[in-house]
Structure formats: C-alpha cells, structure tokens
Amino acid sequence: MKIINHRVNPLEVAGQAYSSYQRNLDNLLNDTSNLQLNLQRTVSGKKSVLTPQSNLLEPSALLTMREAYNNLYSYGAIKQCHYAVFANDIFGIQQRAGVVIPWFAQTFPMSWLATEVDYSIGSAESESFQAGSHQFNYLTQQSSDTIDVTFIETNGGHIAKSAKLCKDIAMPIDGTVKEPYHYTFALFVMVFGGTRDLRNPTLKASYLAAVKEGSINLSSTGRSEIAKTQVTFQKIRPFSFK
C-alpha cells in the first residue's frame, strides 16, 4: 500500500475555517432577518434596537458584529515570531582589535538563535515645573535606551564569546576605556507582517549599539532546558541609524 504524505498548508486551513464561518454567519443572518420581519409585524412596526440589556443575538446586533469583524479582519495582525535580528561590523572593530567575533559572520544564524527581542521605538527624558498648584511636564531630550535580546546558547558558546569580545574591546584589561568608534557596531531589528515579504518588513530599525551586559541563567533543575544568554545592547545614540 502506498502512503501519500500530505502536508497541511496553515493558510489554506485558516481560509477554509474563515469561509465556513462566513457561510454559517450568512445562514444565521438570513434566519434572523425573517425573525426581524415577524417582529416588525407583531410589535407595531418597531425594529429591534441593540441596548445594553438586549440579547446579543438580535438581528441588528449580528449585523453590527459582522461589520465590525470584517473591518477588524482587514487590518490583520503581526505575530511575535515573525522577526529578524542581526549585527554588522560597519566600523571594522574586529580588524582593529585583531579578533574574530562569531556573530558578525554572514553565515552566523543570529536571528534563529534569538528567542526574545525588544524592538525599541525610542524614549525621551522629561522635566517638570510648578505653576501654582499645577505641575506641568515637558520633554527635554531623546534618551539612549537599551535593547535586550535573549539567545539560545550554542555548544561552542558563540553568543557569550561574542558579547565578551565586544565588551573587552571597549574596556581592555589595562583599565582604560576606548572611544565609541572602536567598539560600536550596527544592530538591525526587523518585524514582518502577514505578507511574509522578507524584502519589505513592516517595521525596521537599525541602531548604533555596543554590548553593555550579558549573562547566562543556569539551574541544576533544568536538566532538559536549553541554556540561554541574555545580552543587553546599549544604544550609542538615541535615534535610529540609517
């Protein structure tokens, strides 16, 4: 007997479910339309009106719900798992320091190892002043916030080693601190919508960043858990890098 391996297309299944929902809703609306006509004949021609105390299955309520759903469905939604993140050594910090940092390699799967990513939209500092009994606030400047990314750690410790090398470049063992040009790199974060077009992400941001902090959470009870490295990237300047 020949076994055919049939792969299920999630989009096709979702489309069939939505079509079935539309057919059931159309049938229900047709039935309630007839009910509405009967109500109009028996209640002195008064139509059913949706009130907080009325039944949600009234004809007018169903029509309103269907219109609201169709309007909401047209906007779509972004899923949390559709993103990409990668780093680029735009200033050649590896060459000047004489080291090779794993996550700058073009073949390094940084996006696949990133399990949690903070997409930074930006932040600002504020101050306030008093005018009588009223307090007024105003924005003063953009602030350089941080970006936290959690990675699955590899057997070779590529994430932890990369973070340590970047930090060591900024702060050598002799106790000095180098200029930002020597340890700054570009960090890109992209978010993709329902179109799945990798060339045109829905949201895209790029920052001049440096490694501020890194840590690995270990536990003796996590015998089957994957070790993860959390890296905090510090924005070198508050706005996006173009």
Features:
5 helices, 30% helix, 27% strand, alpha+beta, 242 residues, disordered N terminus, 2 domains, six-stranded antiparallel beta sheet, two-stranded antiparallel sheet, Elongation Factor Tu (Ef-tu), domain 3
Topology:
Elements: H1 10-42, H2 59-75, E1 83-88, H3 93-97, H4 110-113, E2 114-117, E3 123-131, E4 134-143, E5 146-152, H5 158-170, E6 185-191, E7 203-216, E8 228-235
Helix pairs in contact: 1-2
Q: pLDDT under 50 segments (min length 5)?
A: 1-6, 39-55
Number of strands: 8
The number of distinct helices, counting runs of at least 4 residues, comes to 5
Q: In order across it, which strands form the biggest sheet?
A: 1-6-7-8-5-2
Description:
Helix content is 30%, strand content 27%. It is α+β, with helices and mostly antiparallel strands. Strands 1-6-7-8-5-2 form a six-stranded antiparallel beta sheet. A two-stranded antiparallel ribbon has the order 3-4. Helix 1 packs antiparallel against helix 2. The radius of gyration is 28 Å and the shape is extended.
Short description:
This protein has 242 residues and is an alpha+beta fold. The protein contains 5 helices and 8 strands; from the N terminus they run H-H-E-H-H-E-E-E-E-H-E-E-E.
